[in-house]
Amino acid sequence: MYQLDYVPIRLANLNDYFIRYKETKDEKYFDEFLYFYEPVLNRNAQLFIKKYGLDSNRIDDLKQIFSSLLWSELQNYDSDIPLLQLIKYKVLKAWHEYVRTVCGNVHIDNDNQYMNLRKVALLHSQQPKSKPLEKVIADIAKKLNISENTVQNCIITSTRFKQNSNLDIQNQDNENYFSSSTADTEIDTLSPEEIYFKNEQREKLKTALSKLRPQDLRLIELVFGICPNCLKNKEKMTIRKASLIVGTTAEGAEKRLKKILKRLKENLE
């Protein structure tokens, strides 16, 4: 799609193409970036297509959305943070808007409805199969602070929405491009720079957790209800109950937690 009539010299850092464009206003640097980046863009678009069960011919639309958004953001780019990092969430949001307005087999009126749909779908997928539907609806409505009628409609709609693995809010794949640890509401309210640094902090926390002994990591996971791999919320336990699982007393678990938290704080500084 992004072909050139000459063989460009590849720069060591892809972000240098944007810097040179800003310095010279020569559009060839933007074209050369797309030329070298296209294999990566193809993979990302194909992952998105597979996840949503879209027709393969949608790839050119997704690539055009990316390149148009990138060009627009490049005009005002003035940051030490790589441009691709800054626009990643904007691209995903634009692709979701494309799915919502063009690709779905049900009509979703606006972004707010789409966001509710994704959140409800995730929570619904996490419920025990033996749990009564009425209780599921009530619990989700309370957690998201929306009406039970809205939850019920979202559950019905999510079963009809044409996707392979329900909705993106579930985010089950392991590809770095889609492994966003930032909540949807944050994507809508934070600046790209804030999102970037927030994720940097979360990566530091994951690294610090990975340095803990398995038993200590398990205690953190149980007491604080946090998945050490993805940092998503899980069901919390009391220290007493968690201590039984890791094989210690409640007093011993409490003392160990203080040491663990002190160690984590030191590793994060």
Provide tags for this entry.
mainly alpha; Rna Polymerase Sigma Factor, Chain: A; 12 helices; single chain; 269 residues
Write structural notes for this entry.
The chain has 269 residues and is mainly alpha-helical. Among the domains are: 1-105, Rna Polymerase Sigma Factor, Chain: A; 192-268, Orthogonal Bundle (Arc Repressor Mutant, subunit A), CATH 1.10.10. Helix content is 65%, strand content 0%. The chain contains twelve helices and no strands. Helix 3 packs across helix 4 (83-103) and helix 11 (239-246) packs across helix 12. The protein is flat. It starts with 14 loop residues before the first helix and ends with a helix.
Secondary structure: elements and pairs:
Elements: H1 15-24, H2 28-52, H3 59-74, H4 83-103, H5 111-125, H6 133-144, H7 148-160, H8 184-189, H9 192-210, H10 214-224, H11 239-246, H12 250-268
